[in-house]
């Protein structure tokens, strides 16, 4: 059972070290899930004296006004031997054997956090005391409730202290040790009042009655101690602390405890209750109760920790890795993110992700339809054929076949294919740019760095523009090549009849009759259709080679080359992560470290059993 209290001690120390103080925040808190005993009382209620009696040492700061201005997590460890020493979490490896120095360090550490302005802070001080004369127990000493601000404190200090105390004791895992003086009306007790607000049934409140020996003659606290005046689910415990005179005379705790036992065993009113009175009984009772509460909470705590670890890991993955500080690390981070983007882009082109199929639609549908819409019949109308044939003959009509006329008619038709060819290049270019937008949006790491996101997009678009220009040149060259050199075999295979070759016995002017010109138009149309069929296959190949293939191979090559020449300041600008995201990641990493250590500690205790 002692392992359970030690376990919670370790977890509480880890919480403080990693910034989990149980305050409301956007981060999950482990502190609020840990069972703890919070000591609550008004000023001058004897709260400090109760704690010192439980420990058996003078170690708490004393004075007028508000002395306790930060929560003090007091962890008691029972050890063998006769050594007694204390350790602070903020001073690792330093042992205090002089408890007067412990008192001074508590005051100094309070001032380090709050300054000397008598402000309060919810950041706890962790103090561990190791002694053979204590029980294993953890108590949280909270600032004393007050009704008036002292000089040097803001008027809000009264409400601030109450809010801090309430924030601790309103949690269902908190056991409340409500300290009230017996020489005051219990109805006016600050501790009972605030405890009743957060624990109206008294299920997790222990009542401690101090200054019983200072009550007016003829009065006693039996009704309170037996639970008749104010009933709690847990028993009331009366204690007799050292008087101020005893403190001034340095009366040691051993003598004070002996006198406390004698008081309850010899005073007629309390003799029948003496077996459950006194600071020694209080410590043992609290230790036993804390152990039982911890044991009942362990399964739920394990489940909470496992669930929270998964949630923290998910969010950290979403936020991405932290940024490197050196130039090499920054460059590596940028390159890795760019490679992720490039990989996603290729997946779109290769069909792993949607989008690449639109390019095939251009080749299989848009481009062929655009060619079919070309109105070759206008170029091959009778009047146009006659005009071009006649002009090509010049002052001397052709002798056998109008070769120059054929060339001009074919060229006038093929030139019109340039339009659909350019449109196909532009259509594929638009699709490739659209896929860049998709890949950028699907690259989670780019969302982390807005400037890098813009730069990668611009670099990709510039590369695609260069590829488009090169593709357009090569694609139009294919059309121009068909114009510059005709396929001779096509004409050789034509029937060499009188009509085709011309009849030299006919008049020259007969060769320009409608029938003859119509046959020329038909021949040219057949040749143009053959060329269109060829270009319908070769132009998509050129586009894929110059644009799609190059986009897969070298989309960001120019960007990478330019990136290598940048200085660290320029690289840092690319990795301009939102400061809020950076802070969130740091806090999540600390909280994840806390929960993982908690998981390991709990598992270790479970296996040891």
UniProtKB/TrEMBL annotation:
GO terms for molecular function: GTP binding; GTPase activity; microtubule binding. InterPro entries: Dynamin (IPR022812), Dynamin_GTPase (IPR001401), Dynamin_GTPase_CS (IPR019762), Dynamin_N (IPR045063), Dynamin_stalk (IPR000375), G_DYNAMIN_dom (IPR030381), GED (IPR003130), GED_dom (IPR020850). This is Dynamin-type G domain-containing protein. Its main location: cytoplasm. GO terms for cellular component: membrane; microtubule; phragmoplast. The keyword Nucleotide-binding applies. It is found in: Cytoplasm, Cytoskeleton, Phragmoplast. PANTHER family: DYNAMIN (PTHR11566), PHRAGMOPLASTIN DRP1A (PTHR11566:SF159). Belongs to the TRAFAC class dynamin-like GTPase superfamily. Dynamin/Fzo/YdjA family. Residues 31-299 form the Dynamin-type G domain. Keywords: Cytoplasm, GTP-binding, Hydrolase, Microtubule, Motor protein, Nucleotide-binding. The gene is LOC102714186. The keyword Cell membrane does not apply.
């Amino acid at each position: 059972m002692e392992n359970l209290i030690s376990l919670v001690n370790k977890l509480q120390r880890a919480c403080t070290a990693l910034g989990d103080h149980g305050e409301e925040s956007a981060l999950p808190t482990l502190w609020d899930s840990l069972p703890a005993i919070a000591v609550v009382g008004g000023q001058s209620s004897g709260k400090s004296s109760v704690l010192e009696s439980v420990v058996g040492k003078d170690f708490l700061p004393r004075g007028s006004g508000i002395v306790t201005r930060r929560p003090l997590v007091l962890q008691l460890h029972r050890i063998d031997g006769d050594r007694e020493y204390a350790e602070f979490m903020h001073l690792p490896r330093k042992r205090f054997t002089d408890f007067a120095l412990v008192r001074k360090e508590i005051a100094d550490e309070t001032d380090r956090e709050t300054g000397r302005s008598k402000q309060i802070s919810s950041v706890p001080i962790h103090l561990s005391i190791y002694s053979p004369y204590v029980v294993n127990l953890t108590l949280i000493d909270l600032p004393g409730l007050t009704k008036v601000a002292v000089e040097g404190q803001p008027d809000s200090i009264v409400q601030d202290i109450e809010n801090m105390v309430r924030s601790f004791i309103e949690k269902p895992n908190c056991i409340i040790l409500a300290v009230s003086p017996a020489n005051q009306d219990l109805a006016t007790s600050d501790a009972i009042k605030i405890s009743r607000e957060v624990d109206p049934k008294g299920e997790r409140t222990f009542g401690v009655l101090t200054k019983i020996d200072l009550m007016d003659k003829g009065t006693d606290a039996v009704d309170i101690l037996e639970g008749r005046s104010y009933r709690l689910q847990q028993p009331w415990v009366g204690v007799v602390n050292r008087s101020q005179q005893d403190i001034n005379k340095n009366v040691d705790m051993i003598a004070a405890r002996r006198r406390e036992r004698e008081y309850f065993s010899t005073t007629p009113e309390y003799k029948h209750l003496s077996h459950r009175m006194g600071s020694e009984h209080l410590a043992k009772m609290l230790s036993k109760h804390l152990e039982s509460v911890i044991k009942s909470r362990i399964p739920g705590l394990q489940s909470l920790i496992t669930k929270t670890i998964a949630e923290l890991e998910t969010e950290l993955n979403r936020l991405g890795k932290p940024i490197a500080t050196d130039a090499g690390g920054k460059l590596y981070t940028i390159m890795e993110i760019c490679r992720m983007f490039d990989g996603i882009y290729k997946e779109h082109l290769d069909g792993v992700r949607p989008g690449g199929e639109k390019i095939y639609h251009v080749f299989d549908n848009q481009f062929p339809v655009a060619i079919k819409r070309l109105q070759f019949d206008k170029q091959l109308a009778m009047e146009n054929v006659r005009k071009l044939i006649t002009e090509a003959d010049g002052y001397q009509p052709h002798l056998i076949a109008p070769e120059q006329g054929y060339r001009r008619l074919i060229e006038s038709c093929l030139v019109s294919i340039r339009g659909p060819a350019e449109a196909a290049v532009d259509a594929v270019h638009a699709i490739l740019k659209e896929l860049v937008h998709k890949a950028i949006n699907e690259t989670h790491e780019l969302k982390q760095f807005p400037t890098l996101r813009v730069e990668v997009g611009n670099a990709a678009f510039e590369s695609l523009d260069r590829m488009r220009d090169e593709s357009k040149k090569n694609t139009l060259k294919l059309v121009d090549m068909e114009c510059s050199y005709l396929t001779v075999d096509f004409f050789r295979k034509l029937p060499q009849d009188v009509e085709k070759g011309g009849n030299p016995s006919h008049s020259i002017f007969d060769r320009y009759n409608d029938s003859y010109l119509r046959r020329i138009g038909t021949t040219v149309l057949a040749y143009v259709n053959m060329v269109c069929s060829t270009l319908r296959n070769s132009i998509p190949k050129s586009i894929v080679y110059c644009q799609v293939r190059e986009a897969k191979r070298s989309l960001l090559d120019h960007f990478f080359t330019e990136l290598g020449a940048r200085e660290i300041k320029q690289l840092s600008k690319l990795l301009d992560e939102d400061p809020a995201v950076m802070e969130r990641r740091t806090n999540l990493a600390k909280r994840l470290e806390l929960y993982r250590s908690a998981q390991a500690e709990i598992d270790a205790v479970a296996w040891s059993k």
